[in-house]
């Protein structure tokens, strides 16, 4: 098979998502197949037909109390002044709760109201009314009544009702079989050893688990190399046995994106490209009557496309509506720009700060898996909008329980590895609290506190005039706001260089001279400010630094850059160098403090946070990392 | 072992629920055990320790586009007026999206912006900026960064992030083993044949499935007879291997409620009786360090007690907070009376009618499983309240997704078997709609429409004056309201009697004469009104009818009463007699019509309902039941 037959197709459609979904739902018209399974194993399954009770519950008149069963007519004469004697067998029998009432009786008197005279005789002083304390036949379930219609998802209590009605096998919709085909010559299994250019295949596992969650039966196939013949065979095999087929990557318009041509050759292509960002390069087609969904390779695009196109198919098969996510009204902390004519799906962080929900966009790069992991919600910007302004109120689909968002401590500012420890220690004490941190740099952290977008910011801002850390910046930038600066820890900044320091870097002059490939930090980061100060002191201009414009967003990112490049160097904290097994040449000790609003500092969450910082357990963990000194008797500075 | 040692203990405590929970949480202090499981199988599991990335993703500088990798410095001269030629190998290489960038290059130019001159040479007309179109190492995940703290429930996308960071085995909290012991000599398996006095054991299956849902590992044991020695052995065996033990029934104060005595003998009893209704007779104790929870036998009490006491233990073990249910503000359609000094848990139906959520209590009998199945929400009345008034706004915990409640058609009034068919046919066409019906009788149905608590009411009300059905009642009771009476069907009422009609019932006189045990319907039911009219016409007084005061709530309940009692009789519709294989002697044909608000009739839901009624498929299904005539060209009557 000649690769050239599958030529590059540069332009994709921009079909509205709704239209694209409806086309495949109509073409598929999947309907459920029934299978009977034991009721006790039917949790979460969907009834495929209405279910009717086989027996009543109770299926006999049952006593609702411990006591005696009587015939009410026999007791009408009983009175406090004229106690009545009843004889066992003929006029009463003892019953416990749940016991059957013998046919000749029609009422129950509670044992507390019975005087036992001897083995054969009781005395009562009050008449019984007919049917008192009796659970009549069918009080709970009446034989032949409909317990559930079709399309009902069975919950634990539902299984009880089914068994009570003696339905030991229940008709449920068979799970639709969804075959997942990962393609790509660059893909390897996560267990393999990594080499440059190879990428771990993980989308398939994600797909399989989404499909499981949605009620389908996933079948994840082995990785298929980028050869048209292989892909063709995999597709033909899959449509033979599956209800739905998902093929990952090759859905775009690149030179090795064969998929669309192959589907066109074997069947029909309904759509190639939908009007969404991300997620545009989607293929929707049909081979031998089975819907084939080609999803993009970038993880975020891939999962969104799966939800848009595969989930409705699974739900159609199960005869249930596509569940909707809980929504929340939030205020936007930043402006959001959107493409006209396409739906934009923006992953958002949500913080509950000062009594309101504030949301900020995460990275919009479709390749960043962690943006989905970290997202609290999804903002869908409709195709006719150019976006939203900062401060606008918008509705967001939640990706996490609201409770979890409400209980999150929003951590902003500079990155430090101890924040993860703090997070983990806090969760050990208070599993309902959570630290959500974004690494935006010290200056941006201060601004987040100013704008009410965060509870806490980690900062290390050196004042070039006074050589003092943090206080002067906070006073200047947050004048008039009630904030607290909590002295958190001292740490050492230094050069992060490859093992053995091949370029012999020990100051900025040496860095410039050696033409090291420098991994700089983003504007506003405390480490960047320190670096600029060092340049100024040694009168080196930024132009003399190779890589000055290259911005990393955390100490670990800098260390990751240095690792594996003998010519690289960066400035950062010791633990980052240690974690990546790199060399470290100390430059300066600095104060990394926690800036908080006074309201947060005094809140329950704030008090917990401080108590964790002051705990022995936390100090021990920090010492294990090394390179830190925790301020042990720190006094907060009210500003 | 002598049963007498375990004497009746009549009084239970009324301990506040919160206090009771805290005691066992403290006594248990369950902490998680870690197990490493394959990441691909970890969906829904809870991390037991923080998880750090083993590799970066990407772990090399990767191209973000299809194009050529270049050294940016080599391209600075390129200009539209001065095209620049680059030679392959030395000055550029071709790269596809995801390919590694060779170390000597630092930028990518998109293939669209490249002119290919020959196999060795390309031309560009614009300079590249350093690092353009390159995904740097760690853009998504940086080696050593914390991906998840402990206590995180893994979702599909999370598994992708783990695999991407080459974590193929993930540390998760082992599921706590919860042993469930059903006790009771009256219990049988659902597969057994039912005899009088025997009850199907189904609580155990419900418990097991709740525990599964909450993240535990249930172990449901065989039924244990009510013998102290058996119970003791079962408990001792269970505490040996389990993390938590649940024993069902025997937790009250009856003569066979041994459990509390046994737990006291083998260990400690913390609590016997909590201040809740239902759910009061709970036992909380400890044997050999393991918490033992004794839950009541009545299903509703049992499931609530499980949620209150076992769920927090499971969550403590998994180190996660107890999830909270979504809540909703609703208006109460009826008054709710509550016990002072105890929390009341009232199962509620919620209808979204005329743009507001109206909630009404379901039966409060703790023995009615179906009340939990049917409940949309739970109203918790705090111990210091005597209840709520009709019209009060209260907050309800939802037991069903809000979307499902909002899309429900609330059906009230008289019971008819075709309503189930309607429900099932509607769901076939519109799986996002649902009919929720309560059988309250025709008059109560009219009142529900009047009070805005229902969308539709099935009614069959015979006017004794005019002998006309429904119209005169509606005109009188709903004067001034815009409603529609939709002619639904004609059906036959008649005597429901045992096979062969042993008492030869064929009119009310015969019924009185034979002293049949009559199963009457509730006040306000159309069938009751018909019966009263028959009595009046034949001048029989209610006192002459044996069982006149005995009220059944549906045709099927009447038929269930008649079945198995040779002396019984009832009045009802033909299909009910047929379903229970009873004889039927026709008495009168009647009109069973649907009363709707005009707003509902004209809504999307209303139009769907009518289209289903008019469909051929529905008529065929109704004909299969028999005894009905569907009004095929019915014209709605606007009143």
Automatic annotation (TrEMBL), chains A, B:
InterPro entries for the chain: MoaB/Mog-like_dom_sf, MoaB/Mog_dom, MoCF_biosynth_CS, MoeA-like, MoeA_C_domain_IV, MoeA_C_domain_IV_sf, MoeA_linker/N, MoeA_linker/N_sf
A GO molecular-function annotation: metal ion binding
Known cofactor(s): Mg(2+)
CDD domains linked: MoeA (cd00887)
A single GO cellular-component term on record: cytosol
Domain MoaB/Mog: 179-316
Major enzyme class: transferase
Pfam families: MoCF_biosynth, MoeA_C, MoeA_N, PBP_like
Pathway(s) of this molecule: Cofactor biosynthesis; molybdopterin biosynthesis
Coiled coil: none
Assigned EC number: 2.10.1.1
Entry keywords, A to Z: Magnesium, Metal-binding, Molybdenum, Molybdenum cofactor biosynthesis, Transferase
Keyword Transferase: yes
Catalytic activity: adenylyl-molybdopterin + molybdate = Mo-molybdopterin + AMP + H(+)
Family: Belongs to the MoeA family.
Summary of the function given for this chain in its UniProt record: Catalyzes the insertion of molybdate into adenylated molybdopterin with the concomitant release of AMP.
Listed name of the protein: Molybdopterin molybdenumtransferase
Protein's organism: Mesobacillus persicus
UniProt lineage: Bacteria, Bacillati, Bacillota, Bacilli, Bacillales
């Amino acid at each position: 098979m000649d690769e050239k037959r599958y030529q590059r197709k540069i332009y994709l459609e921009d079909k509205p998502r709704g239209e694209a979904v409806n086309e495949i739902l109509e073409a598929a018209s999947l309907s459920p197949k029934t299978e009977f399974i034991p009721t006790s194993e039917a949790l979460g399954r969907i009834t495929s037909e209405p279910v009717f009770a086989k027996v009543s519950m109770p299926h006999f008149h049952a006593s609702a109390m411990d006591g005696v069963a009587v015939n009410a007519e026999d007791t009408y004469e009983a009175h406090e002044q004229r106690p009545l004697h009843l004889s066992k067998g003929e006029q009463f029998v003892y019953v416990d709760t749940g016991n059957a009432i013998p046919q000749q009786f029609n009422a129950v008197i509670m044992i507390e109201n019975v005087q036992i005279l001897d083995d054969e005789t009781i005395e009562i002083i009050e008449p019984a009314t007919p049917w008192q304390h009796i659970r009549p036949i069918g009080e709970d379930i009446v034989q032949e009544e409909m317990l559930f219609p079709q399309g009902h998802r069975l919950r634990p209590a539902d299984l009880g009702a089914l068994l009570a009605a003696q339905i030991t096998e229940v008709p449920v919709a068979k799970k639709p079989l969804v075959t997942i085909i990962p393609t790509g010559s660059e893909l390897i299994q996560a267990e393999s050893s990594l080499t440059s250019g190879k990428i771990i295949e993980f989308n398939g596992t994600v797909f399989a688990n989404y499909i499981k969650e949605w009620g389908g039966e996933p079948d994840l196939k082995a990785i298929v190399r980028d050869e048209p013949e292989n892909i063709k065979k995999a597709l033909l095999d899959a449509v033979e046995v599956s209800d739905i087929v998902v093929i990952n990557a090759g859905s775009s318009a690149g030179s090795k994106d064969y998929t669309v041509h192959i589907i066109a050759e074997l069947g029909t292509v309904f759509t190639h490209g939908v009007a969404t960002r991300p997620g545009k390069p989607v293929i929707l087609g049909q081979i031998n009557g089975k819907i084939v969904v080609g999803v993009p390779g970038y993880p975020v695009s891939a999962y969104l496309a799966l939800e848009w196109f595969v989930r409705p198919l699974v739900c159609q098969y199960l005869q249930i509506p596509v569940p909707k996510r809980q929504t929340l009204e939030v205020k936007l902390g930043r402006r959001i720009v959107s493409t006209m004519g396409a739906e934009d799906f923006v992953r958002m962080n949500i913080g509950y700060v000062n009594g309101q929900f504030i949301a900020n966009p995460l990275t919009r790069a479709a390749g960043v898996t962690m943006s989905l992991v970290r997202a609290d919600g999804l903002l869908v910007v409709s195709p006719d909008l150019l976006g939203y302004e900062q401060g606008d109120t918008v509705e967001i689909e939640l990706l996490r329980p609201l409770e979890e968002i409400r209980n999150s401590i929003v951590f902003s500012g500079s990155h430090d590895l101890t924040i993860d420890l703090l997070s983990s220690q806090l969760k050990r004490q208070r599993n309902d609290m959570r630290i959500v941190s974004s690494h935006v740099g010290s200056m941006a952290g201060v601004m987040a506190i100013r704008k009410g977008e965060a509870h806490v910011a980690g900062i290390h801002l050196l004042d070039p005039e006074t050589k003092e850390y943090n206080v002067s910046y906070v006073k200047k930038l947050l004048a008039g706001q009630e904030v607290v600066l909590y002295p958190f820890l001292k740490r050492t900044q230094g050069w992060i260089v490859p093992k053995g320091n091949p370029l012999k870097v020990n100051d900025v002059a040496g860095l410039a001279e050696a033409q090291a490939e420098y991994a700089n930090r983003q504007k506003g980061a405390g480490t960047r400010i320190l670096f600029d100060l060092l340049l100024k002191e040694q009168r080196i201009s930024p132009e003399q630094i190779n890589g000055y414009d290259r911005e990393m967003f955390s100490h670990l990112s800098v260390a990751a850059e240095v690792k594996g490049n003998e010519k690289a160097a960066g400035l950062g904290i010791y633990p980052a160098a240690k974690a990546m097994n790199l060399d470290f040449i100390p430059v300066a000790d600095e104060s990394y403090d926690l800036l908080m609003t006074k309201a947060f500092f005094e809140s329950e969450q704030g008090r917990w946070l401080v108590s964790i910082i002051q705990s022995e357990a936390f100090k021990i963990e920090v010492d294990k990392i090394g390179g830190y000194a925790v301020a042990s008797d720190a006094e907060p500075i009210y500003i």
